Amino acid sequence: MYAERASRLAGAVVWTNTPTGAGGRAVLPDGCMDLLWSEGRLLVAGPDTRPYAPEGPDRSWAGVRFFPGTAPALLGVPAHELRDRRVALADLWPAARVRRLCDRIEAATDPATALEDVALDAAARVAAPDPLLRRLVERLDEGRPVSETAAELGIAARTLHRRSLNAFGYGPKTLARILRLQRALTLARSGVTYAETAVRAGYADQAHLAREVRELAGMPLGELLGAG
User: Fold this and answer.
1) CA atoms within 13 A on the CB side of 16
2) Domain that holds residue 151
3) Is 4 in contact with 17 (CB distance < 8 Å)?
4) Using one digit for the tens of pLDDT, what is the confidence trace for 110-158?
5) Which residues form a coiled coil (predicted)?
6) Is pLDDT of 53 > 90?
7) CA angle, corner 223, sides to 188 and 191, nearest 5?
8) What local confidence, expressed as pLDDT, does residue 23 receive?
């Protein structure tokens, strides 16, 4: 069973997922990175460009999903180095520090809240998130073209691409596609017809929506919603 709540860390979400016996479902690209806790281990989920299928038996998870573009500064690693990867936090931070954090979470009554505290502590050690990156995410999530957004933000296309690689793990066009996919899924899950979903999410037509869902989610939209 999956549950989530808004985090005390601005823009982040704290979530838990416990086995239901129905098998794990694929994790879809969403523009975010996550700090994960499961069975005594701290992991980092990098930015996905394709569906991620959890391996092994079902297990309980807790996670903090960071607002797009904010995790690399907290973790001290460019996002593109973690693209489509799950890595141990001990590969990014000193092992002794990670062991102390694991002991702290293991002893907590609520591991999800303890994990959130780890994220808050990390955020307190670094500068505030770059407001330009947040504006970029907001504009693209509104369906604005990348070129128009770059001009509005007063940043050259090449510079925007480089900064996007570091912050999101891929360029702004890929980020725009992933955010558009998430808009479409939200609409379709609310009962909006596929044709209307395509128009409102910013696709050329329903066939364009179908191609993008198959490419980014790995299955047809109807199958994806049935699996959710």
Assistant:
1) 15
2) 131-227
3) no
4) 999 999 999 999 999 999 999 999 999 999 999 999 999 999 999 999 9
5) none
6) no
7) 20
8) 57
Share of the chain above pLDDT 90, in %: 89
End position of a domain, from candidates 124, 147, 179: 124
Three-state SS across the chain?
Answer: CEEEEECCCCCCEEEEECCCCCCCCCECCCCCCEEEEECCEEEEECCCCCCECCCCCCCCEEEEECCCCCHHHHHCCCHHHHCCCEEEHHHCCCHHHHHHHHHHHHHCCCHHHHHHHHHHHHHHCCCCCCHHHHHHHHHHHCCCCHHHHHHHHCCCHHHHHHHHHHHHCCCHHHHHHHHHHHHHHHHHHCCCCHHHHHHHHCCCCHHHHHHHHHHHHCCCHHHHHHHC
Residue type, 186: T
Are 115 and 141 in a shared domain? no
- Looking at the fold, whether 23 and 115 belong to one and the same domain comes out as yes
Cα–Cα distance measured from residue 115 to residue 40, given in angstroms and rounded to the nearest whole number: 12
CATH number, domain with residue 221: 1.10.10.60
Beta bridge partners of 41: 38
Joined together, the tokens standing for residue 207 give 């066939």
Count of domains in the chain?
2
Q: If you average pLDDT over every residue of the chain, what do you get? A: 94
